[in-house]
């Protein structure tokens, strides 16, 4: 049954009006992937204890928060990430109260604390040793807090959120320009920011990202997900933003950085709050001469800047009514990097994003919570060609597209004995608007005829594809559909304009059941997708975790079925190409029907193993079968990409993380992952056909990657944070073997360190397809020999790389008491200045070098 869009719009208007009315009259607290711990502290006679300090702490994530009880002995700790915590209560003249507290939903957790007399010790439900660091959950995931993210030495202008996910989560392969491949998929990530779902692309070449300065904590789910989530499910990033509620006054951070490539940033985070009202505001700006990852090791034409503004307001005038209002606005302005073969180009890109997301919660009773989250989000993308179209090579292109997304997510949570129930809806519409222009500027790009040596005939008067003239031979790669748009032969630019609405409605029900040492997560989700095509899919989800307390072990298994939805970016043009689509099949792509939604069956099995109370190993095996597996294909060496779908994919692998608690200032973790990503033709969509003859390894496939992070901090001041990142190398689709490498331009051959029979290619003496090459090698690619390449078992890959980053600094430069502290640090990214690739001539992402060594100095003031 279709729902009236006018009805949905009316519902949103009412919700927004109601929200702002409440903003004037009532209040708010935790939202999204966070909960609340509240209670009352009394003495042995039942009298309230005023001014007692209540603190919570997680030994693995390092998250902590402290509040003070009021006159009536009550306390409330808001915005607490879902996890297990130690809670302690201390007051002068009383014994310390200790309790383990599990925060597993947005329902407030009640903790009554009765303090004993001094000299005694009160402990409730505190488990010693291994149980302190185990997390009993059927879904494999990683938790990351703001303090860990603040110290982590990472640098990716405009994409710090992406880089932090890559460096904290196993099974995530790194790619250029903020892209990453979670567990064998390309950018299949759902961001849930304070309960606002965002399934559109968050790479900086598509959109803008929430700055790290606004993030309180993240839960990064890589296992089978529960029924609450859909759309993009390979990785769920549940992000909780910073809040001023309950902070008792003003706090904030002001900082600036300067570094290599003229990179400079400024960041301001200001918060204030009380028990009733809170606000947090963050404004960040960055300018860099190495904004995007470039097709050459050193950047050419790569200046970019990014500005973001975020504000979260919280109001709480009633204990049972909760209101939030999130606002986000951002802009990216970017030069498109040039290679040595495109030195005269001046292509640029601008992305503007804004989002408004209120949220309302009502506590119906102590066990029942209603949550409603309406939202609006807009991404507008503009791609500008050079002023002289013939400065662009081999083609000139421009684009203006917009994603206008609005919807509402609402659910009802109920605690009923051993059961935690949740029933919800997720309704949204995405309005697509696309405009695209394209023209060929290189006479050799689509020449109708070849000369006797196999070279394109660039004479603009040679127009007959029959090639009947002397010395003319037919070009087997000539595209007649592209010929009218060859500007070098009197053609005009191709123009496309389209708009369409994508309507999605989801309903879910789930139950988390605790039974002894077991935890069962059961649920079902129903999705109705109405876009260029229609699809509905019931999706059962199930997970089981079992805690073996004697050995400090948690075993888990899970299954999920999910509806996979196409990427929205350029979906209209991508679905219009091919047989039965655009007239004469302009670009040679294959989309006889629009790109279809798909489905996935996913199985996970894993465990947690604690070693004492200091070390935790978490490992997970995944197997995913997807019908209609999605990816992007790139247009030449631009940032314009088009969604495509493969008939099916089979993905499997292992993810894991080994973590320590904080041991006298030392803390470390080691993540690892192995992914086998096998895709099966035929491919559909895009604007350029990609049709391998049989099963192949896509460029998401990587045999192994790991990240090691070691940090030592002396008390709360000086620290050193060291990162080792190893990637065994993604598959290279555009250069499968030595024979293809011989066709590259001289600049590209030199970039790759290409050698034939021990002789290195140079600009003056490059190789060509006729060069005898018994043994071809590359310093940056594995490069199978001619005839030895196999798309499934022996594809070309980027050579393995080891990258080292280090940060040295202090969070209290002058060792002052109190909250007012100066901070300073120096970070070195790619310490050894390693020359390495993310990918090269990838059909799906282009050519991108890893950034050279970058040194960044930071100075700031916290208060």
If you had to describe this structure to a student in words, what would you say it looks like?
By secondary structure, the chain is mainly beta. The chain has a 22-stranded antiparallel beta barrel. A 5-stranded mixed β-sheet has the order 3-2-5-6-9, with no helix packed on it. It is globular and about 110 Å long. The chain starts with a helix and ends with a strand. Residues 1-29 have low confidence and may be disordered.
Quick overview:
The chain has about 850 residues and is mainly β. The protein has six helices and 46 strands.
Q: Topology, please?
A:
Blueprint: H1 5-25, E1 34-42, E2 53-57, E3 64-68, E4 74-81, E5 83-90, E6 97-103, E7 109-110, E8 113-114, E9 122-124, E10 141-145, H2 146-151, H3 160-168, E11 172-174, E12 180-182, E13 189-193, E14 196-198, E15 215-221, E16 235-241, E17 249-259, E18 263-273, E19 277-288, E20 304-318, E21 321-335, E22 348-365, E23 368-384, E24 395-416, E25 419-440, E26 449-450, E27 473-474, E28 494-515, E29 518-530, E30 534-548, E31 553-564, H4 571-576, E32 598-611, E33 615-634, E34 641-660, E35 666-685, E36 696-697, E37 702-713, E38 718-727, H5 738-741, H6 746-752, E39 755-756, E40 759-760, E41 776-777, E42 801-810, E43 821-829, E44 837-842, E45 846-849, E46 854-862
Parallel strand pairs: 1-7, 1-8, 6-9, 13-16
Antiparallel strand pairs: 1-4, 2-3, 2-5, 5-6, 10-15, 11-12, 13-14, 15-16, 17-18, 17-46, 18-19, 19-20, 20-21, 21-22, 22-23, 23-24, 24-25, 25-28, 26-27, 28-29, 29-30, 30-31, 31-32, 32-33, 33-34, 34-35, 35-36, 35-37, 37-38, 38-42, 39-40, 39-41, 42-43, 43-46, 44-45
């Amino acid at each position: 049954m279709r729902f009236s869009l006018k009805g949905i719009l009316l519902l949103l208007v009412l919700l927004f009006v109601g929200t702002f009315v409440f903003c004037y009259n009532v209040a708010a607290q935790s939202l999204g992937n966070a909960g609340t711990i509240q209670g009352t502290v009394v003495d042995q006679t039942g009298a309230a204890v005023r001014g007692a300090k209540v603190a919570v702490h997680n030994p693995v994530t390092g998250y902590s928060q402290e509040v003070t009880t009021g006159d009536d002995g009550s306390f409330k700790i808001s915005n607490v990430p879902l996890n297990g915590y130690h809670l302690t209560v201390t007051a002068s003249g009383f014994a310390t109260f200790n309790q383990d507290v599990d925060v597993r939903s947005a329902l407030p957790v009640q903790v009554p604390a009765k303090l004993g007399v001094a000299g005694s010790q009160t402990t409730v439900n505190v488990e010693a040793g291994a149980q302190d660091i185990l997390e009993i959950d059927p879904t494999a995931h990683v938790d990351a807090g703001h303090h860990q993210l603040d110290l982590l030495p990472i640098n990716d202008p405009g994409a710090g959120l992406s880089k932090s996910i890559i460096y904290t989560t196993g099974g995530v392969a790194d790619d250029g320009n903020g892209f990453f491949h979670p567990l064998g998929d390309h950018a299949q990530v759902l961001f849930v920011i304070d309960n606002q779902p965002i399934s559109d692309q968050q790479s900086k070449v598509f959109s803008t990202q929430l700055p790290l300065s606004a993030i309180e904590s993240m839960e990064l789910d890589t296992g089978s997900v529960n029924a609450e989530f859909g759309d993009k499910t390979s990785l769920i990033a549940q992000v909780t933003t910073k809040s001023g509620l309950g902070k008792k006054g003003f706090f904030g951070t002001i900082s600036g950085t300067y570094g290599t490539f003229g990179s400079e940033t400024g960041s301001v985070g200001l918060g204030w709050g009380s028990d009733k009202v809170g606000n947090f505001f963050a404004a960040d700006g960055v300018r860099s001469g190495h904004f995007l990852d470039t097709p050459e090791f050193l950047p050419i034409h790569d200046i970019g800047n990014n500005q973001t503004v975020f504000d979260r307001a919280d109001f709480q005038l009633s204990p049972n009514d909760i209101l939030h209002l999130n606002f986000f606005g951002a802009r990216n302005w970017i030069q498109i990097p040039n290679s040595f073969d495109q030195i005269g180009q001046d292509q640029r890109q601008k992305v503007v994003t804004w989002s408004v997301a209120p949220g309302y919660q009502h506590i119906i009773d102590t066990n029942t919570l209603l949550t409603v989250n309406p939202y609006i989000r807009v991404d507008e993308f503009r791609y500008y060609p050079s002023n002289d179209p013939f400065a662009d090579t081999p083609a000139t292109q421009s684009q203006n597209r917009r994603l206008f997304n609005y919807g509402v997510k609402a659910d009802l949570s109920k605690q009923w004995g051993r059961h935690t129930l949740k029933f919800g809806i997720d309704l949204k519409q995405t309005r697509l608007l696309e405009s695209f222009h394209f023209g060929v500027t290189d006479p050799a790009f689509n020449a109708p005829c070849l000369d006797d040596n196999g070279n394109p005939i660039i004479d603009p008067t040679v127009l007959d594809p029959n090639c009947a003239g002397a010395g003319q031979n037919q070009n087997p790669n000539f595209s007649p559909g592209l010929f009218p748009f060859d500007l070098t032969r009197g053609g005009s630019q191709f123009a496309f304009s389209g708009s369409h609405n994508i309507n999605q409605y989801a309903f879910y029900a789930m139950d988390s059941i605790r039974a002894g040492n077991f935890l069962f997560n059961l649920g079902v989700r129903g999705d109705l997708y109405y876009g260029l095509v229609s699809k509905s899919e019931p999706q059962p989800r199930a997970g089981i975790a079992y805690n073996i307390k004697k050995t400090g072990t948690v075993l888990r298994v899970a299954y999920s079925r999910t509806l996979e939805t196409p990427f929205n970016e350029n979906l209209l043009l991508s679905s219009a190409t091919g047989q039965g689509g655009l007239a004469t099949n302009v670009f040679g792509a294959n989309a006889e029907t629009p790109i279809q939604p798909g489905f996935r069956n996913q199985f996970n099995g894993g465990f947690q193993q604690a070693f004492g109370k200091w070390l935790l190993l978490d490992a997970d095996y995944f197997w995913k079968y997807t019908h209609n597996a999605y990816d992007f294909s790139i247009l030449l060496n631009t940032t314009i990409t088009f969604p495509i779908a493969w008939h099916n994919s089979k993905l499997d692998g292992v993810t894991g993380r080994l973590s320590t608690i904080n041991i006298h200032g030392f803390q470390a973790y080691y993540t690892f992952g192995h992914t086998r990503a096998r895709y099966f033709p035929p491919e559909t969509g895009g604007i350029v056909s990609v049709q391998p003859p049989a099963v192949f390894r896509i460029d998401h496939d990587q045999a192994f990657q790991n990240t090691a992070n070691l940090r030592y901090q002396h008390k709360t001041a000086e620290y050193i944070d060291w990162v080792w990142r190893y990637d065994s190398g993604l598959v290279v689709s555009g250069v499968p073997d030595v024979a293809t490498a011989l066709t590259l331009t001289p600049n590209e051959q030199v970039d790759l360190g290409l050698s034939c029979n021990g002789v290195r290619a140079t600009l003056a003496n490059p190789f060509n397809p006729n060069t005898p090459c018994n043994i071809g090698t590359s310093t940056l690619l594995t490069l199978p020999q001619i005839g030895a390449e196999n798309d499934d078992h022996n594809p070309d890959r980027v050579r393995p790389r080891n990258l080292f980053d280090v940060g040295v600094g202090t969070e209290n430069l002058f060792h002052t008491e109190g909250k007012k502290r100066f901070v300073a640090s120096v970070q070195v990214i790619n310490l050894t200045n390693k020359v390495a690739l993310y990918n090269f001539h990838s059909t799906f992402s282009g050519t991108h070098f890893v950034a050279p060594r970058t040194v960044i100095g930071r100075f700031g003031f916290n208060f």
